From TrEMBL:
Keywords: Acyltransferase, Cell membrane, Membrane, Transferase, Transmembrane, Transmembrane helix. It is found in: Cell membrane. This is Acyltransferase. The chain crosses the membrane at residues 12-30, 50-68, 88-107, 127-145, 157-185, 205-224, 236-253, 259-281, 293-315. GO terms for biological process: enterobacterial common antigen biosynthetic process.
Length: 345
């Protein structure tokens, strides 16, 4: 596989991660989202995804990092790129969203205005992922820049370190999403290792991998049905093992689905904006008197997936909005002479 060629299997997994993320936020935690009771089958589905959802997102980030990882002495450019990609949308999308949540009517989550304005420091919404993964990129990128991850042995040692820190008690103050970074780091490093060993993994586990993932999913559904208290602790040894095994099982499956590949291409926009569209869907249907859970979930998932796709295509048309709201590089328009010469060539 070419080092910079898109993998359809990884894009499929990225689309799957988007689907799981949106489905969870539509259903919501207890007291949030659609406020479904513990006995609801949709509540069981939401709880059963906890060990797979964000680990898979982060595993993919680590895998893709290994394709484009820092090389040579371009650490400053690397940092600038991550600031543009992660921190700029944090301020331009994350903070305004939190403020809107604080002052908007009919919002499930009680967020104070001050907490919303300071959400770039102590996370209050799903944007904690931006802060957490930024810390991870800086940490791993620095190690890479100093040539401390040149061998697989060193990457395995980093995975062991990440797993050990993962099992420690969380920090009292989640400054800049540090607890999220500790939670996600093992899955990011595992994604790096997965990229380096992808051929061997798929050759060895191509048959058993999908079976393992299906079995894990069924067991999680069963446990969530019996007692959700057994399954909601993400930072636990069980959470670590289930998350790692699930990610590797999915990687080995060589799964390809065209609609998931298409969704995967918009994964960042879906992450940033899905809650806005899902909440709007819930509010509109509520005003119309629709209270059927299945309809609310389906509508929320469809709007949460497709709304950001539309918004991404609009923002990408303009350099300023693509930078501020999507973290993309600023595009420079070619002068007319250059355009003409390209057209004639």
């Amino acid at each position: 596989m070419s080092s910079k060629k898109k993998s359809l299997e990884i894009e499929t997994l990225r689309g799957l991660a988007c689907l799981l993320l949106v489905l969870y936020h539509v259903i919501g935690p207890l007291g949030g989202g659609l406020k479904m009771d513990v006995g609801s089958p949709f509540r069981v589905i939401a709880d059963s995804m906890v060990y797979v959802r964000m680990p898979l997102f982060t595993f993919i980030s680590g895998y893709i990092y290994s394709l484009y990882k820092i090389r040579g002495n371009d650490f400053q450019a690397y940092v600038s790129g991550k600031v543009r990609r992660l921190i700029v949308p944090l301020f331009c999308v994350g903070v305004p969203f939190s403020v809107l949540q604080a002052v908007g009517p009919g919002v499930n989550k009680d967020v104070g205005v001050i907490d919303a304005l300071l959400s770039f420091y102590v996370p209050v919404n799903h944007f904690w992922f931006l802060q957490a993964v930024f810390i991870i990129f800086m940490f791993v990128g620095l190690l890479e820049w100093r040539e401390l991850l040149q061998t697989m042995t060193r990457q395995y040692l980093l995975l062991a370190f990440a797993a050990g820190v993962f099992l420690l008690p969380p920090f009292a103050v989640d400054a800049f999403g540090i607890n999220g970074a500790v939670y996600l780091l093992p899955f990011f490093v595992l994604g790096m290792i997965g990229h380096e060993k992808v051929t061997e993994i798929r050759q060895t586990f191509r048959v058993i991998g999908p079976v393992v993932f299906v079995v894990i999913s069924l067991v999680l559904l069963y446990v969530a049905t019996l007692d959700r208290g057994l399954i909601v602790d993400r930072r636990s040894l069980v959470g670590l093992l289930v998350g790692c095994v699930s990610c590797m099982a999915l990687l080995s499956s060589n799964l390809q689905a065209r609609w998931l590949i298409w969704l995967g291409g918009y994964s960042y926009a879906i992450f940033l904006f899905h809650v806005l569209f899902a909440a709007t869907s819930r509010a509109v249907l509520g005003r119309l008197g629709v209270n059927e859970d299945a309809v609310l979930v389906l509508s929320g998932v469809v709007c949460g997936l497709l709304g950001p796709v539309v918004l991404s295509n609009i923002f990408s048309r303009f350099s300023l909005t693509s930078v501020l709201f999507l973290g993309e590089r600023a595009t420079r328009k070619k002068p007319p002479a250059a355009v003409a010469s390209v057209a004639q060539s």
